[in-house]
Amino acid sequence: MRWFSLLLCVIGSFAGAHAQIYTLNGGASTLYQAQGGSFSVRGPRFAAMVGAGLLDGHFYDGAQLIRPFGRYKLTAGDNAMHFELPTDVFGTGAYFYTRGVSLERGFKQGAMSVFAGATADSYQTPLFEASKADHPAAGFFFHDRLTPHTTLASDTIISTKSTSIESIDWSPRDQTHFALSAGMGANQPYGAVSLYVKRPIYDVMASYIQAGSQFRRIAVEQPLTAEPDRGNIVVNFRPTRFLTFSGGRQDYLMPEDESLNAQGTRSTVNSLSGNLNIFKTSLSASYFESVYENNQNVSEAFTASRNITSRVHVMGDYLVSHEQNQPSFSSLIGDFEETLSPRWTVGEIVTYANGQTSVSFGGSFLSNFFQASVNYQTYYIPALGSKPFEQALIADLQIHLMQGLTLHAGSFVSPDGKLEYTADFTKIMSRDDSSRGAVQNISLDNSMIEGRVVDTSGNPVPGAALQFDKMTVYADQAGRFFVREHNPHTHQLTVLTEQFLDGGNYSLVSAPPTVRGMRRDEGDEVTVVVRRSGNVAAAAPQQLEPQQPATTTSIPSSTGNSGGGSEREREREREK
Q: What's the pLDDT tens digit per position in 330-342?
């Protein structure tokens, strides 16, 4: 706890002198069996956070400080380190947690990062983030583009069980990648080869992985992340703009708790889906075949949807499942949704299963003060056995009070199909200049960029996140932001709608692509307009406890599947 107290002192000193935005969050959640809160501060050149609370009756805490250090980004305290390999064509999102100090630096042809301290068991909740130091560890990650077509990567972690994996990525042409990785992970052998091809009418992602039965990228208790294993392939085919097909096979290795010294559990999911959009009607069909711990399940899903008018939408689902040595299960679901006004949407769900009919109602309401939504989502959960389709009510409520205070409550579906709840609050505060209501900035530079972030009704959006080139700035309680510089420059402006501090959902309506600093008595205010959205994603947050691989799969939506959702694909799009 000594380092934690020292870090608190450092955070306090920075907060008192340079903070722009203060955020206080707290509450309780049955989904995480957690009660607690966090406090964060953000300034022009730093961000800091402390959090603490009870998880399953045990007390945990966490803290983090991020700031520039020369040409590096320094992170002290708890940190999530990404650990993706060039052969991860399916976008595994692999990461691990550390407690210590890390330095990261990007350069023209690559990037590097180094850390020292300890691996950590991390406990992520919407209320606070906490960690518990595990084993002493140090790591070094480096990747460099040697030629326009070749990139080398090296990932090394030294701990009680060491990891060292070397990789090469060869791109003979745009959107075509061959990659090879080899080495060891947690003292277990590892080898992988992959292919990634993206063309206008098709995508191909394939890999073959051979690893030890106890392979892990790093030996930590959490998170127990499922690793791709053996042969994997996904093909997306788009012969026309209104017809798409997708099919694949994915194998997973789920590691066991390190203390058990047991072999990992393997599972397989085969899938095939198609989507047709014609005459304002969308039709889709999906097939799933899963094998987990010698249990086999075959399921199909059929969906049809259509916009009857500009305000009325109807959708129907037919779901059927066959488990080995068990009777079949089927259900028919009808969904009717009507937009009464820009603020009100109502819906009705009719379900027929096992000879019984049930009717449910839902909807959403959106205003600047109050946002509420009730939606239904169907999940495919192999772990549920003969009835793997689970339909859950996803509710979300937000109340935006005065002075940057937001109250929030929501329900979620855990990977085992249980409905859980979360309730929390967020308080946003800022340091204001008494004469202008602007975020305080001690700089005496002569040039500045100033503006406001408002919603479509003209109300200010406190805590809005904007990026000027690579610098992130947050709006104050009046939605105002300021950027000062010694001489006027033109900057690329990006509105980071996913990083707004008030917890709402936003989409960008209008903003200038570039802005330029002006003298205080020159130029006009920059205005950014965003739209508040009442819709809530129906995906469950990350769980505290390890979950089984591929346990929850959302049924493909009736709007089609382009097959381009992986992190690898988004990265390739950015490169292009």
A: 889 898 888 888 7
